[in-house]
Structures are given as C-alpha cells and as structure tokens.
Specification:
Elements lengths: L1 E5 L3 H15 L5 E6 L9 E2 L2 E2 L14 E4 L4 H13 L7 E2 L4 E2 L4 E2 L4 E2 L4 E2 L4 E2 L4 E2 L4 E2 L4 E2 L4 E2 L4 E2 L4 E2 L4 E2 L4 E2 L4 E2 L4 E2 L4 E2 L8 E3 L4 E2 L3
Parallel strand pairs: 1-2, 1-5, 6-9, 7-10, 8-11, 9-12, 10-13, 11-14, 12-15, 13-16, 14-17, 15-18, 16-19, 17-20, 18-21, 19-22, 21-23
Antiparallel strand pairs: 3-4, 23-24
C-alpha cells in the first residue's frame, strides 16, 4: 500500500516513522512522501521520504491512502473532511510497538504512536491521535478528531468527545465522560464529568474561568 503523509512538520515525521516501524516488520507499505502547502519545504528530505509538493498534488501522485498528520484538531478535521469529499481513502498508522487488546476498533486515519496501550473493547474514532505512550483502558471510547497526548492515562470506560484534547500526562478516572471540543490541561487529574467546550486544569481538574 502506497501512503501519502499530509503535513511535513514534526507530527508528520512521527507518522512516517510509525509507518516505517510496520515496514521494518515486513508489512507491504510504502511511504510515497509528504505533501505540505509551505513552498519552503518542497523538495526537502524528511523521515522516510521527501516533501513532494502542495496538498493539491495528491490528485496527480499515485497512492492508495492518506494519513492527515496535523496536530491541531480543527485543521486536521477540516483536511480529513476535504479529502474524504474527494473520495480519498485513509489508513490508520499504528506503531509496531502498540499493544492492542481483543475487540479493539481503530478508525480510519488514526495515528497510534509508539508505546500506546489499548486494552480490550476500546473504540477509537476516525482521524484520532493517540500519542506516545498513552494508555487507554478497557471499553474507553475516543471520539473522532480527538487527540490524547503523550503519557495520558485513561481509566476504564472513559468517553472522550469529538475534537477534544487531553493534554500531556493527564489522568482521567474510570467512567468519566469528557465532552466535545474540550481541553484537558497537561497534568490534570479528572475526577468528575467535563462538559462540552471548556478547558479544565489542575488536580482535581476544574473549569478555567476568565
């Protein structure tokens, strides 16, 4: 399978490295290269390939699937939806070191980084980022276009809403529901449900005011 990486920044290079981990264990994948709208990057070498041109070049470069490798949730969703409307296929980039339990579902276009643990019954939405060494315990649900940052610990049966960011090192107790378009600050400890569209910080996590 020939894969284009959308976005040539640091996050894009992590995605290419994840795909490289699958190639190194013998999976029939190929990183065709990167696409990025910054003309200063065109032609530059990156992990696993070169920057081949702007995003619109996907129409002329032979490939089988894309990964949208952009960290910002809103921008990543917009790109995912634009490419989907053009009929593009998306592939999940899952590092070879990922531990995946039984009955886990990983959505199209997701990125699952090195050291991630997905315990049984987890549901991961489309275009999600599960970043380095986070752990997602049993029967959690991660909404579309969400980002679970490095080192996060989610207890069992946690629900993370669409477009939400759970910041680096945060801890979420079992059974908690976190709303859509919400930000959980780095290092926060979430012990109560969190509504849509807010930012929570601290231990215990509380909604930021003004």
């Amino acid at each position: 399978m020939r894969i284009l990486v959308i976005g040539a920044g640091g996050h894009g290079q992590v995605v290419a490295d994840i795909l490289g981990s699958r190639i190194r264990i013998g999976e029939p994948l190929q990183v065709v290269g990167y696409l990025d709208d910054d003309p200063r990057l065109h032609g530059e070498a990156r992990v696993g390939g070169r920057v081949l041109g702007p995003l619109e070049a996907h129409r002329s470069i032979p490939h089988d699937a894309l990964v949208v490798a952009v960290g910002d949730n809103a921008r990543r969703r917009q790109l995912f939806q634009t490419f989907a409307a053009e009929g593009e296929r998306f592939v999940a980039a899952t590092h070879a070191s990922t531990i995946v339990g039984e009955d886990v579902e990983i959505g199209h276009g997701a990125m699952v980084a090195a050291g991630v643990i997905l315990n049984p019954g987890v549901r991961v939405g489309q275009n999600v980022i599960l970043n380095t060494a986070c752990s997602i315990d049993h029967h959690c649900v991660i909404g579309d276009h969400a980002h679970v940052a490095p080192g996060v610990r989610l207890g069992g049966q946690v629900i993370v809403g669409d477009m939400t960011l759970v910041g680096i090192g945060a801890v979420v107790l079992p059974g908690i529901r976190i709303g859509e378009r919400t930000i959980v600050g780095g290092g926060a400890v979430v012990i109560d449900n969190v509504p849509d569209g807010v930012t929570v910080v601290g231990n215990p996590a509380r909604v930021m005011r003004g």
